[in-house]
Specification:
Distance between the termini: 21 Å
Number of domains: 1
Helix content: 40-55%
Order of helices and strands: EHHEEH
Number of strands: 3
Number of helices: 3
Radius of gyration: 12 Å
Amino acid sequence: MMARIVTAKEVAEYLRLNQNTIINLAVKGDLPGFKIGKSWRFDMDEIIETIEQSKERARNNQPLTKSDEND
């Protein structure tokens, strides 16, 4: 299946966050994303997976770590 690549604006709308917040999270490595030129792009499947991992950790009271993204 082909990845659904979206913009920071689309991720922001999906998560109901400010676009700058999405970019800041991506820069910090807290949201998976990549740059094409000056623009950030995101794989929506990876965003959803990250959210699911975060929800699971919240249920178990465990913080998300960058090493978990490689699992």
